[in-house]
Amino acid sequence: MHGSFRMKEILGVLLLVSIWIRTTDAVRNTAELRCPDTSLDAEVDKTVILPCWTVPKMDVGNKVEWVLNDTVDVHLLRKGKHEFDDQGKDYKDRTSLFNSELETGNCSLRLKTKMSHTGRYRCTVRIGDETKHCFISLTVHPHERSNTTQLNLSDSTNSPGGNKDSTFPPGGIVGIVFGIVGIIIIIILIWKRKTCSEVLGGKRPWPFPFPRPPCCPSGEVVLQIDPDDPVAQPRPGRTEVGRTGHQGKPDDF
Ligand SMILES: *[C@@H]1O[C@H](CO)[C@@H](O)[C@H](O)[C@H]1NC(C)=O
Ligand SMILES: *[C@@H]1O[C@H](CO)[C@@H](O)[C@H](O)[C@H]1NC(C)=O
Ligand SMILES: *[C@@H]1O[C@H](CO)[C@@H](O)[C@H](O)[C@H]1NC(C)=O
Ligand SMILES: *[C@@H]1O[C@H](CO)[C@@H](O)[C@H](O)[C@H]1NC(C)=O
């Protein structure tokens, strides 16, 4: 009687122990590591989060590893400590984990991107005796806005319908300045020559609202005529009206 009671007790304890072992085994075997996003895009120099967590929630504070392309160590947590000795140099001061969430199984990685960060990331944790991992592919793009607007600007200067008012090519500005200066020089030369010849020929009053050029001092007739100058040369039978009506008049332009 007494002995069988003990046997029952022992059997009961064994049963409970085996049930407990089975359930914990089951939890271990069904516990998973999940990377909900299989691929992510990010702009360079931006902070991106690579999500990774356990289901159900389990403490992963002892060991978390993030590795790129199975070769470059991105961020390592071993025996509860962050280890940076083996960290790839492109990841220095650019990675972190959410330390307060490690005990609830959240081993997401926070990463400030570089162009060289494109690749496949492996998130690895240890659950019980087993190592679990999952993968995320990250693609890092160059800056989008600033660089494409520059491309668009150079396109518009080449296209005939481009916005030329706001984007004068430098060569055009130089050409316009030279053109204006050239026209001014030509006008001054013609004024000078015309007024000289008019004063020489007909003693006309000075008609323009700016000072008389130095070749014609104060309306006096200068009689030194260049014989090769067809304008200054007096011609026979030529009236004053005929002269002024013809050559060198500003209206002719
Ligand atoms: C893990 O942490 C990140 C950052 O705080 C958060 O965005 C994400 O939702 C968390 N995941 C879980 C399952 O708590
Ligand atoms: C990682 O793999 C991707 C895709 O194969 C590749 O483009 C990238 O250059 C690799 N990065 C490194 C650092 O090996
Ligand atoms: C354009 O892209 C280059 C590299 O591709 C980068 O170094 C530069 O900063 C970008 N320009 C701007 C204005 O962001
Ligand atoms: C500017 O460039 C981007 C990318 O190259 C393009 O998507 C966009 O349509 C362009 N815009 C104009 C006005 O050309």
Task: Provide a brief overview of the structure.
Helix content is 32%, strand content 23%. It has 253 residues and is of the alpha+beta class.
What does this structure look like?
The protein is built from four helices and eleven strands, in the order H-E-E-E-E-E-E-E-E-E-E-E-H-H-H. The radius of gyration is 46 Å and the shape is rod-shaped. With 253 residues, the protein is an alpha+beta fold. The protein has a six-stranded mixed beta sheet with strand order 2-11-10-5-6-7, with no helix packed on it. Strand 5 (64-68) and strand 6 (72-78) form a beta hairpin. It has a domain at 32-141: Immunoglobulins (Immunoglobulin-like). GO terms for molecular function: signaling receptor binding. The chain crosses the membrane at residues 172-191.
